[in-house]
Amino acid sequence: MKKCKLENLIDDYLFDRLDETQKEKFEGHYFNCPQCFEKMEQTDEMIAVIKTNGREIFRDVYAPQKTRRSRLESVLAFLTPRQWTMAAVSAALILVVAIGVIPNFKTTSPEFFINDDLVRGSSIALISPVIDNLDHVPSEFRWQSVGNKTEYKLSIYHQEELLWTTTTKDNFVTLSENIKSLMAPSKKYSWQVKAFSPEGTLIAVSSRVQFCFVTSK
Amino acid sequence: MEKRNKNLDLDVIVAKYRPVVSFRVKKSIGVKTPDWEDVVNEIMINVVEKLKKDEFRGDSSIGTFIYTITSRRIIDFIRKKSKVLKHAPEPNPYISPQEHVENRERAQWIAGSIEKLKPKYKEVLYLYYYQELSREEVAKKLNISSRRVSERVNYAQKLLRKVMKE
Lengths: 217, 166
Hints:
The structure holds 2 protein chains of 2 kinds.
Chain A: H1 10-14, H2 20-30, H3 34-57, H4 64-76, H5 81-100, E1 111-114, E2 117-120, E3 122-124, E4 126-128, E5 140-143, E6 151-158, E7 161-168, E8 172-174, H6 177-180, E9 189-196, E10 202-206, E11 209-211
Parallel strand pairs in A: 3-10
Antiparallel strand pairs in A: 1-2, 4-5, 5-8, 6-7, 6-9, 9-10, 9-11
Chain B: H1 10-29, H2 36-52, H3 62-83, H4 97-115, H5 119-130, H6 135-142, H7 146-165
Helix pairs in contact in B: 1-2, 1-3, 2-3, 4-7, 5-7, 6-7
């Protein structure tokens, strides 16, 4: 059956969305169009059923909001309240253990004191110069090797002030004449070596050993 | 267009237009108004009388002729009704028990048919008829085109009309 051109107005007419002119025109039309009138009657009956029974008919259409809530409910229902309490207490205990106990197992480098300073790390044995009152300015400073791929830092002090420092991967340093000229006879100096891992971590420290020399050669 | 004809079959006209007049009257004065049937009866009697008196000249269709009589009668009724005490309680229209049962069964049958529709058709019916959203609003809500909304509404109506005719 050919569709009537005013058929599209049925829904708007039934929901009172037409203005007065359109409404009168459509009312006059369905008195003359059995096709439109029949469709309108059926639509009107359908709307009446939907309006009266809509909550029941469409419960699964507007229920998604309820489904969203029930997902939370279904998660909570996984355990009983008592079980949730036990799980929370257990989690708290594990957290306390993890924060409080585990740090104690962390390995720390040994502590020792040099000149009242707290130093971590193992000790480096200095080989020379370790004797006071040398007869000449020392040209080489040597110490015992510590580990592999270690980098050493040699520091020479005049009293408490740093006079000169250098780094090397060897276990000795030979002073150049320029560096030797920094030192004067009869004055007290000290030297110290620190060992670092390839990653730059301090792994050993020597004591600070004093020396002086009587003449400069 | 039906021309003025002395041999108009009045029974056919009454049978054909009574439902149309009823629909118009119920929509105008409300189906819960107990007087609606009386108004329809008055209109149909008026139509028959005018046809018998040859007052239908054939200038318009018979449908338009009856529509005009209906509209005037409805306006008269509403005017008279507004003069009556507004807060007077209205008795409910009488519906026979059998009619009540038949109406309820039919409504349940239609509701059941709607429930059996596929979700995509139920969705549009829910938004378009239950929530009374426009086609554009439904389209926006479902993220489909207005045309698709119209297609689904029309198809759902077609399915339900088949059921309602049974």
